[in-house]
Each structure stands twice: as structure tokens, then as C-alpha cells.
Design a protein that fits this description.
Blueprint: H1 3-15, E1 18-30, E2 36-48, E3 52-56, H2 63-71, E4 78-83, E5 86-87, E6 95-98, H3 110-120, H4 125-138, H5 154-166, E7 172-176, H6 184-200, E8 204-208, H7 212-218, E9 221-225, E10 233-238, H8 254-281
Parallel strand pairs: 3-8, 3-9, 6-7, 7-8
Antiparallel strand pairs: 1-2, 1-4, 4-5, 9-10
Helix pairs in contact: 3-4, 3-5, 4-5, 5-6, 7-8
Bound molecules: adenosine-5'-triphosphate.
Pfam families: ABC_tran (PF00005)
Domain ABC transporter: 20-252
Keywords: ATP-binding, Nucleotide-binding, Translocase, Transport
Length: 282
């Protein structure tokens, strides 16, 4: 992205209302002992329409909890979650999720799995199948419409999961370690596939990963959470690497290495704190 374009991009993020926003969000859980466990403390985070934002942080710091708040699976204990400026109450209808585990129903064929979201929204079978075929083609699965998930590889099942989520044209795509179970080559293929499809849509993506390289390679911004309990945002990094990107190659770019070093300095400290906390509990 050139300097002029970058300026426009920043102006855009200021002018367009955030697609999703966490405003002063604290999340507490009650432990079985009755004790209050504060997971997130006073989080302020805005993600613009069309932005690709990844979140990294030590294990157990609250990344999935943040995703659950945006999805509306959990309400905040304090503060609010805004979706396109409106306070979220209950499940977020504008979001679709892709988790690490399989999304597809094993007893349904690829086309029935992919068309399901539209069928549940009342689209007739013919129309839903027509749209599903388009999405199956977009994720490179033409010819596999009648296969069952067990007849596909792990990477192909991830493609089904992507098509399943994207067919309903969500404004927000929530991804929780979606590719972490894949071998590195399939993972790079899927990451490139995701970027290609994302660039054709205006969806905002909130992506959880343990892998800092993956976060940088994919994202417009990388958020670093502190070690819990009571995690806060430690860093919010703009990733000004050119697009389109090839995730398998971008890590050789000197600009990539520079930002990686910078973010890792932040992340490393939190990983050490988390490790010390876990050791002191033993
Ligand atoms: N429903 C719940 N009830 C009680 N505690 C919970 C609940 N969900 C999450 N937690 C706690 O909140 C903390 C943060 O969990 P979360 O899964 O959000 O972390 P994470 O950063 O996604 O972890 P990981 O990197 O290991 O996937 C953990 O201590 C977890 O035990």
C-alpha cells in the first residue's frame, strides 16, 4: 500500500462507523468456589468495516472470550459491545464463526452443508443449491458436492466451513484458530484462499491465533492482549504490508521481520508472565 493510499485508509477507518466495537468491556466469570474471575478488564477496541484484525496473547488470556462477546454468546459484565453502532443484545445476527473444530454435519453432503445457512433463513432448496454451487466453486470444491465430510481431507473440510460461513454474506467473520489443526502447506493454501475471498467481500474479520506469523501475514492490524487475569490491550499494531499477499512468502519481506520483532517483544513478556503465573499456581 502506497503512502497516499495509506492516508486514505486511515481516514476511512476514522470516518466509517466501526463494524464492531468493545467499549469499556470487562468480563467476569464466577468460579465454582463463588470467587469472581476477571478475564478481560476495561477493553476498548474498534474494528472497521472490511478490516482484518487478529488477536494474539498468552494461552488463557481471554482471546476466545473476546470472540464470544462479539458473537453475543456471552454478555459483557460491564461496558458494551456495539455492532455497526448498535448495542448488541443476544446472539449477533451479522456474524458467522469458523472454529478449530469441524463446522460441517457429518451426515450431510457438501452441498447440503453449504446451503444450510440459506435454507435456515427460508431460501427455497433450488435457490440455496444454486448459491451453494457458486460458493463451492469459490473455495475450489467443484465436483465434491455430493461427498460427505468424512470423504474429504482436513483442508477440504475447512473449505466447506468457509463456504458454509460466507454463503450468508456475514458482515463479520469470527475465526478461532480456524487453521491451527492443518499441516503447514494446507494451512498456507487456506490462508491465501481466505485472503482472496475476503478481498472480494466487505466482511470484517476477527481472527484468533497463537501464531504471530499467521497474524501478521493475514491482518491489517494485530492486537496483543496482556496475560490474564484481567487482560487488557497491550499493543495495537497497524500492518502496512502490501496486498495481495502470499502468506508463504511474505515472512521473507524485511518489513515483515521488523514488525514481527516489534510485536514479539510485547508478546514475549506476556507469555513469560503467564508462564510464571501458571507455575506459581502449581
Ligand atoms: N464459561 C466460562 N466460565 C468460567 N471461566 C471461563 C469461561 N470461559 C472462559 N473462562 C476462563 O476465562 C479465561 C480465558 O479463557 P479464553 O478461552 O478466553 O482464553 P484464550 O486466550 O482464548 O485461551 P487459549 O489461548 O488457551 O485458547 C480462562 O481462564 C478460562 O478458564
Amino acid at each position: 500500500m502506497g503512502a497516499a493510499e495509506k492516508k486514505v485508509y486511515h481516514a476511512k477507518t476514522q470516518l466509517i462507523p466501526a463494524s464492531m466495537e468493545l467499549k469499556g468491556v470487562t468480563k467476569e466469570f464466577i468460579k465454582p468456589s463463588g470467587e469472581v474471575h476477571t478475564v478481560l478488564r476495561n477493553i476498548d477496541l474498534k474494528i472497521s468495516k472490511g478490516e482484518f484484525v487478529s488477536i494474539v496473547g498468552p494461552t488463557g488470556c481471554g482471546k476466545s472470550t473476546t470472540l464470544s462477546l462479539i458473537a453475543g454468546f456471552e454478555p459483557p459484565s460491564q461496558g458494551e459491545v456495539l455492532i455497526s453502532g448498535e448495542k448488541l443484545e443476544g446472539i449477533n445476527p451479522r456474524a458467522a464463526c469458523v472454529f478449530q473444530t469441524e463446522n460441517a454435519f457429518p451426515w450431510k453432503t457438501v452441498i447440503d452443508n453449504v446451503s444450510l445457512g440459506l435454507r435456515l433463513r427460508g431460501t427455497n432448496k433450488g435457490e440455496a443449491y444454486k448459491e451453494a454451487r457458486k460458493w463451492i466453486a469459490r473455495v475450489g470444491l467443484t465436483g465434491f458436492e455430493s461427498h460427505y465430510p468424512s470423504q474429504l481431507s482436513g483442508g477440504m473440510r475447512k473449505r466447506v466451513a468457509l463456504a458454509q460461513s460466507l454463503i450468508v454474506q456475514p458482515e463479520i467473520l469470527l475465526m478461532d484458530e480456524s487453521f491451527s489443526a492443518l499441516d503447514v502447506h494446507t494451512r498456507h493454501l487456506m490462508e491465501n484462499e481466505l485472503l482472496r475471498i475476503w478481498e472480494e467481500t466487505s466482511a470484517s474479520v476477527f481472527f484468533i491465533t497463537h501464531d504471530l506469523e499467521e497474524a501478521i501475514a493475514l491482518s491489517d492490524r494485530v492486537i496483543v492482549l496482556t496475560a490474564g487475569p484481567g487482560a487488557t490491550i497491550k499493543g495495537d499494531y497497524q500492518i502496512d504490508l502490501p496486498r495481495p499477499r502470499n502468506v508463504a512468502e511474505i515472512s521473507f519481506d524485511p518489513a515483515f521481520m521488523k514488525i514481527h520483532k516489534q510485536i514479539w517483544e510485547d508478546l514475549k513478556d506476556e507469555v513469560m508472565i503467564s508462564y510464571e503465573n501458571a507455575r506459581s499456581l502449581k
